[in-house]
Specification:
This protein is an alpha/beta fold. Helices cover about 30% and strands about 15% of the residues. The protein has one domain (about 10-70). The protein contains three helices and three strands. The protein has a three-stranded parallel sheet with strand order 1-2-3.
């Protein structure tokens, strides 16, 4: 059922694969929210592994609005990159 008003952006928490973004885009489009930009939040290892693919998911007129990184859900036990 179409909705009469939409926010300019919608946040997708815990994006793990490009299919997550595609699914939300499909739901928004079916409800009439073609103009809504999606913010993908990367919260876990699966999201990091698919980061490049998540970044590439877009419609012809909908580049990703933003990507948000979050601390790991494992209590911060992920090794940090050491700079030289």
């Amino acid at each position: 059922m179409p909705c009469s008003t939409f926010p300019p952006r919608a946040a997708l928490a815990s994006s793990q694969t490009p299919d997550d973004v595609r699914f939300i885009r499909k739901v928004l489009n079916e409800a009439g929210g073609h103009q809504v930009k999606i913010i993908s939040k990367i919260e876990n290892e699966a999201g990091l592994e698919h980061f490049d693919l998540i970044l590439q998911v877009r419609g012809p007129s909908h580049p990703p609005c933003a990507l948000v990184g979050a601390r790991c859900q494992d209590g911060g036990n992920r090794p940090r990159h050491e700079s030289a």
